[in-house]
Every structure is written in C-alpha cells, then in structure tokens.
Automatic annotation (TrEMBL):
InterPro entries: Epimerase_deHydtase, NAD(P)-bd_dom_sf, NAD(P)-dependent_oxidoreduct. SUPFAM superfamilies: NAD(P)-binding Rossmann-fold domains. PANTHER family: NAD(P)-BINDING DOMAIN-CONTAINING PROTEIN-RELATED, PROTEIN YEEZ. Signal peptide: none annotated. One of its GO terms (cellular component) is cytoplasm. It comes from the Bacteria. Residues 7-177 form the NAD-dependent epimerase/dehydratase domain. This is NAD-dependent epimerase/dehydratase domain-containing protein. Residues 315-342 are annotated as: Disordered. One of its GO terms (molecular function) is aldehyde dehydrogenase (NAD+) activity. It comes from Acuticoccus sediminis. Gene3D superfamilies: NAD(P)-binding Rossmann-like Domain. Residues 327-342 have a biased composition (Polar residues).
Length: 342
C-alpha cells in the first residue's frame, strides 16, 4: 500500500465524479481525472489535472492509477445506455488498477440495489433484492468489489439519494424536473404527495466522500455507508422550493408522465430505464446514515433553499433575488460554477 495522497477519479467529467474531484482537491489530494479527451477537459480550468484513458480499458486505468492511494469509481454509461454490457467490465478495470497500485476504491452507490423488502429505511446492511435490471447490475458490481476485498482490494461504498447540484450533467432534477437555460414556468414532480424521498446536494455528498477518503486507512477493508442528505418528507418540498424561487408569477407543478416514458421506452433505452425506476418515487424511504456520522461526524449540509438556488443558477435558470441582494443579479451563477467537458 502506498502512502501517497494521489487520487484517480473515473467519471470526473460527469456528475458526482466531478464534484468528488473538486472536494478531494480541496482536501489536499493530488487529483488525476481520467478522460478520453484531455485537451477538451483541460479547458474547464479545473485545478486537478487530466490523464488520457478509457474506464473500459484495464491497461489504461492501471497506468493512470500508478502511485495512487485512492481510486474513485464514478464512471457510468451515459443516460443509462449499455449498463448491462459496460458496468462490470469497468469494475474489473478498477479492481485491476487497485490491485496493481494498492489503492482503496471508493464507489458512489445508488439506491437501485434495493427492492420493496428493504424499505422504508435503507441501511448499509439491508437486503439487496432489486426489481430492475439496473439494480441487478449494481448488486453484481458491489458483490464483485466485496469479493475483491477478501483478496486484498479495499473498497468504500458511499450510497446517495437522487442528486441535484449546479454542475451535474445527468440527474432527475436537471433532465426531468426543470428546463435548463429558461425561466421556470413549470416543474415536473416525479414523486407524489405524502411519499418521502431522499435527495443529495452533490457538493455535500462529495465533501462526505472526501472526509471518508481522508480516514480510509482506519476503515474496514470493505465498508458501506449511507448519506441521508435532504429528505423530502412530504414528496412536494423539492418542487415547491423550486417554484418559490422562480422569477415567474405563476409556476405550474405537474406529475412526470410515467406512462408516456414507458411507451417511449419501447424505442429508446434511456427512456426505458428511466421509466423502470418509477417504484422509487412511489414508495417512501430514507437512507440510514448512522454509521457515516459515526465515522466522519455530522453530514455536510447546505440548507435546501440555498442548495436549490445554486443548482438553478448552475442550470441557467433565473431565481428571485434573496433579501438584500441587488435586483438584476439573480441569474449570476455563484460558487464558481463551470462548464463540464463531454
């Protein structure tokens, strides 16, 4: 095992991977971000640096991980496409790189591993009996990592609810609830009134990941943690917060057209996989973070209104000025929001 504080991040040009890279950089890690297009990625102005490679190519991941003590595996097939054929080969690449470098793997986990039998309180040791193909793939991925831990390849899994944040390229918030780059005249609600649903503000989740990374040497070889985030207990708090921040006098809140998604899914893989996670919006659940709090202390927590406002700014959606803020500045993106490479 190396003592270097070097982290390789796969998926750093995507969603939570980019936030994780930023958080690790802020914690003093030397961050290498794996990407297929170094020149384009470097134009983002990120303070970490990019190395060329492909997460599906074991040799390039092994090369990129040389000297690293941490590998954040945040790479996913885009827009749900190719999950069944790509997720496990990428995991094998990461395991091979961790084995060669002695690095600890950190995997941002999802709730799709679980079925109805695990709800309403999802704990790190809850049974994983998913009802969807995406869930079954994620279970197979975690089992592969757990088996590797028995053979010396250490892993941390930090599981999150649905992400939102100013720099995410893929999320229900960005792709299913609002229209980026436009004033908010309507909000789609994938949930239902009275059905509790957990949300993770991505910078908060990434900060928790970085705090675990800082103490990884003290953690078990295979460790799972859950991030509680913002629990929308009413099933409407998130969409109502978005509506209240809108500059428009009237904002219509409507349900996501799940039936239409299912029909479109007959012809489009992204729509098909989106429709299949409907059950996670129809049953109340929350993530039990007791073991995470025991490890790092209280979760990083940005107040919901602030987090939603920053997110909307990052998406180019104007919001009402806050008290004391000069009018005309509401659409300026705070917190150094930047464009991500593709």
């Amino acid at each position: 095992m190396t003592a270097s504080k070097i982290a390789l991040v796969l998926g750093a040009t995507g969603s939570i991977g980019y936030e994780a890279a930023r958080a690790l950089d802020a914690h003093g890690w030397v961050v290498r971000a794996l990407t297929r297009d170094v020149d384009r990625a470097a134009r983002t102005g990120a303070s970490f640096y990019f190395v060329e490679g492909d997460a599906t190519d074991p040799a390039s991941v092994v090369q990129a991980a040389r000297g690293a003590s941490l590998i954040v595996h945040a790479a996913n097939p885009p827009s749900y496409r190719g999950w069944s054929r790509l997720v496990l080969p990428m995991a094998d690449s990461v395991i091979a790189a961790a084995r060669a470098s002695g690095a600890r793997i950190v995997l941002p986990g999802t709730v799709y591993n679980y079925g109805p039998d695990a709800m309403p309180v999802l704990a790190p040791d809850s049974p994983q009996n998913p009802r969807t193909e995406k869930g079954r793939v994620r279970v197979a991925l975690e089992r592969r990592l757990e088996a590797a831990a028995d053979d010396g390849v250490r892993t941390i899994i930090l599981r999150f609810g649905d992400f939102f944040g100013p720099r995410l390229r893929s999320s229900w918030f960005r792709q299913g609830m609002v229209r980026p780059g436009r004033p908010i005249t309507g909000v789609f609600n994938p949930g239902r009134a009275g059905i509790a649903h957990p949300w993770t503000y991505a910078p908060d989740g990434a900060e928790a990941l970085a705090r675990l990374a800082d103490i990884e040497a003290t953690l078990p070889p295979f460790a799972r943690y859950h991030f509680a985030g913002h629990l929308d207990e009413t099933g409407t708090t998130m969409v109502e917060t978005v509506a209240r921040l809108s500059t428009e006098p009237r904002v219509r809140i409507t349900r996501v057209p799940w039936t239409a998604l299912a029909v479109l899914g007959l012809f489009n893989e992204t729509m098909r996989e989106s429709a299949r996670v409907k059950s996670f919006w129809r049953a109340p659940y929350r993530l039990d973070n007791a073991s995470l709090v025991a490890a790092i202390g209280p979760e990083p927590h940005t107040p919901l209104r602030n987090a939603v406002r920053i997110t909307l700014h990052g998406l180019g959606c104007p919001t009402k000025p806050e008290p004391g803020e000069p009018s005309g500045t509401s659409s300026t993106a705070p917190n150094n929001t930047s464009e991500l490479p593709s």
